[in-house]
Amino acid sequence: MDGVYGEADQYYPAVAERFYVETLGCPKNAVDSDKVVASLLADGLTPADRAEDADLVVVNTCAFIDAARQESIDVALALSDSRKTGARLVLTGCMAERYGDELAVALPEADAVVGFAHEGSLVDVVLRGRKPTGVRDLLELPRPAPRAPWAYVKVAEGCDRACAFCAIPSFRGAQRSRTIESIETEVASLVDGGVAEIVLVAQDLAWYGRDIGEPGSLAPLLRRLDGLAARGLARVRLLYLYPSEVKDPLVSTMLELPTVVPYFDLSLQHASASLLRRMKRWGSGERFLGAIESIRAQEPDAAFRSSFIVGFPGETEDDHDQLLTFLRAARLDWAGFFPFSPEDGTAAVHLDGVVDADVAAERLRECADVQEPISQAARDALVGETVELIVDAIEDDGGRSVLIGRTHREAPEIDGVVRVVAAHGRPGARIQVEITGAIGPDLVAVPVLAGVLP
C-alpha cells in the first residue's frame, strides 16, 4: 500500500476500541496529532488517558535532527514494552514519511509505519488492513474539543525554500497554503470551544498564500481573525517568520490589530552574512538588527525570539564572534542554540570546513553565556509592571491555588510562564497582575484586580 510501510502480515483485521497518541517534535506535529485524533474519533474510537490502556498506540515522530530521531525511537520502544497484550503500535509523522520501509525494518516492534498520505485513515489502513477509499487531508480535518485555552493552527504545509541544513521540503513537499476561509472556520470553532489564544504555525508562515497566487496574504488573514474578537478570541500569535518577509505591511498589521500580540519569532539561524550564504539563507546581523530596532521604535514592548545554528560547516571564529556581537546588540527576549546536525539529502552534508564537535559545543556554550543574562535582564525589567495574563492552568501548591499563565511575551511550551499565587481564575480567563519577581525563565506575580476580564 502506498504510504504504508512494512510487510502485509503486520496488519490485523480487528478494530481497536481505544487509542492513545504520543506527539514528538514541533508545534506543527501537534496540529497533525490533533487531526489524527479527529480522524480516529470520526471512525468511532475513543481516547485513552494512558498508552497502557489503549488498543491502538500512535507515535507521531520527529525527524528534524539526530536527537529528535533517537527520541522518537526511544519513545516507540518504551511504548511497545508498556502496551497491553494485543495492542497495536503505529509510527507516523516525519520520521515515518522520511524513512518508510527502512524504519519498518529497523523497528519490527511497530505493527505499521504510516506516511502522511494515510494519517487521516489509520483505522482503514492499520486496523482493517486495506487501503482507504479516499485519502483525508489532515489540514482540512476538524479538530477535537480543545484541551487548553490556547491552540496551534497550521495555515500551510511544506516549504519552498532550500536551506542547506534542512531536509523538511524533501518529505513535507512544497508549500501548500490553506484558504483564509478554511482557517477562519477552524479558528472560530476553537474559539467557540473556549480557546482564547491562537498560535499560527507553518514551515514558512510569512510566505503564506504565495503558492496560491496570493503573496502577502498573512496580513489579510490576521485582519479576518481579528474579527473573531467579539466571539472570545483574545490573542493571535505568529511563530516561524522568515526574516526577509517581515516587511512594513506585515509589521504594521501586527502592531495595529488588538488581538495580534507584538511577539516576533524570527528564524535568523546566524548573524554572519557569509555563513548565511553558505546556509542558502537571506540576511546579515546588520539587516536583522535594523529590523529589530525598527520594530522596537514602533512598539517598545515588542518581544523577540529566535534560534541559531552553531558549528555549521565553514563557520570561522570571526563568524562566531559576529554572532556573539549580534546577540549583545539585539537583546532578544528568548533564544535557542543548536549544534549543526548533518542531514542526509541536504546540501550541507557535502560542504567542506566541518567544525569539530568540541569546538561547536564550546561555541554553543559561549552563545548561551552571552544570551542568558540578556534574557534574565528582560524578565527582571518587568518587575513592578502591571500586565494582562491569560490563564492556562491552575495548580495546587500546598492548598493554595496557583494560576499558571502567560503575557504576550511568552509563547506556549517554548518560553517561560507567569505564576500567580492566591488568585481566582479559570483557564482562558484574562486577569491583571503585577510582576513581583523572576525565577529562572518564569515570572511571579500577584493579582491587582479582583474581577476577571471577559
For the record, what CATH class of the largest domain applies?
Alpha Beta
Reading side by side through the largest sheet, how are the strands ordered?
Answer: 1-6-5-4-2-3
Mind summarizing the main beta sheet? 6 strands, mixed
Find the count of extended strands (DSSP E, 2+ residues): 19
Q: State Rg.
A: 23 Å
Structural class: alpha/beta
Please state the average pLDDT score: 89
Tell me the number of helical segments per DSSP (H or I, 4 or more residues long).
12
CATH superfamily of the largest domain: tm_1862 like domain
Strand content: 15-25%
Task: Give the second-level CATH assignment, the architecture of the largest domain.
Answer: Alpha-Beta Horseshoe
Q: What does this 3D model show about the protein?
A:
The protein is of the alpha/beta class and 454 residues long. The protein has 3 domains: 4-138, Rossmann fold (3-Layer(aba) Sandwich), CATH 3.40.50.12160; 142-380, pyruvate-formate lyase- activating enzyme (Alpha-Beta Horseshoe), CATH 3.80.30; 386-447, Nucleic acid-binding proteins (OB fold (Dihydrolipoamide Acetyltransferase, E2P)), CATH 2.40.50.140. It has helices spanning 27-42, 66-82, 94-106, 122-127, 168-172, 180-192, 218-226, 248-256, 273-278, 285-298, 317-330, 357-380, and strands spanning 4-5, 18-23, 46-47, 56-61, 88-93, 112-114, 150-154, 156-157, 176-177, 197-201, 235-238, 263-269, 303-310, 334-339, 386-397, 400-406, 418-421, 430-439, 442-447. The chain is globular. It starts with a strand and ends in a 7-residue tail after the last strand.
